[in-house]
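Table S2 (text version). Query chain:
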Amino acid sequence: MQVPDDKWNVLYLYRASPRAGGGRAYSLLGFLTAYAYWVYPGAGAALDARRLRVSQCVVLPPHARQGHGARLLRAAYALARGDPRVVDVAVEDPSEGFQVLPLLAVAPLRNGSRAGAAGRVG
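Corresponding structure-token output:
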């Protein structure tokens, strides 16, 4: 990865908590990286069509099994829906744990349904 590289997206999921002396403390819960990958321009795809490929989806152990992985994945789908060049979302070499996520429950890119977004939790 070269920095900057506009083909990579990094989504962070964090919790913001008030501090005793004022202000906020931020705790990282997890992150997801996705790469805008070239799509073969056949089957009606435009020349600048892209596939968003999820490379890593990491939820830190203290926050695992609380739905944060699904929340990050929904945010990746929302990111894809916001880019008219993206035709689908793929996952690069998914682990067994990732395959358990409700991938089929996440709406297809172009059906207009609502999606979650990564960001502040709670």
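Notes on Table S2: The radius of gyration is 16 Å. The first strand starts at residue 8 and ends at 18.
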